[in-house]
Amino acid sequence: MDLDCCIKKAESLERLSFEEAQLLYEKGSFHVLGELAHLRRKELHPDTIVTYIVDRNINYTNVCISGCRFCAFYRPPGDPEGYVIAREDLYKKIQETLELGGRQILIQGGLHPELDISYYEGILKFIKENFDIHVHGFSPPEIYHISNVSNLSIGEVIGRLKDAGLDSIPGGGAEILVDAVRKKISPRKCTAREWLSVMQEAHNQGLKTTATMMFGHVETPDDRLRHLFLIRELQERTYGFTAFIPWPFQPQNTSISVPKSTAVTYLRTLAISRIVLDNIPNIQASWVTMGAQVAQLALFFGANDLGSTMIEENVVAAAGVRFRLSIEELEAIIQTAGFVPRRRNMYYELVD
Question: 72: domain range?
Fold first, then answer.
């Protein structure tokens, strides 16, 4: 096996093995990786459309027992800065989202030790009784935590949340799906297998989800590839993932001291994600962490989506990164790169 053979295989849009992806990621040039990822992107999306969504991230609590070393947002139980969102504040945030053209809210929070299934059912019912809006909420670690606090199975938790109004599940909490890495950065969070089992159960119950990867902390390049292949294998069984979102760790204000990932590292990782994940239709660029110019380059490294306008975002902001874009600015990024901007929903259906 040599690099030229791997490149030719990727050019032919054939599926790569782990060893082939490993060689391509390690030895392939920056431009070759970009070209190969763009080829795969064009195969899946032959038009010139780049999508985005108008939504808001709502964090219902910052109280968390996980204590992840990479998180600058959480507060431990009993901390005076800890909160659980009031219903009137939640109402105002959703009302404002709708007024700004939003069709969805992303609702996530910390692993609060005192909130059981009834809290989450209550918040979903409150939203659905008052608003016609898609609820994309509760990542796998949250669902796993709810099952433990409530003494329920994963299937029971997902079924009850779905009945209460949950429409889809975000891919947060994946970090790197390698337990040796997870033990170093998030030792009290669910394991890689548990994260995957939550997603498989959600897909089996008819819920679509996204998948993410946070890289650039204590993992190796091979760990990133192991993560990608686990996602690809689950997608092969369920076809429940609508999109994959890789984003670089933001070290500011955290207890992990590493250099911030460069734009080149980000784009190489985005490109290999697009090449490996041949069965996931959409790859999202992370302008929230990388800024507008790098996100625009990402459209030529495999990405076909720019994610959310982020009416509100708190977790990345807590790490000291505060990029903000209006709908007009987001569309301008897309147009000046030679693409056509279109709004979408969580299922990647065009809605504008």
Answer: 56-324
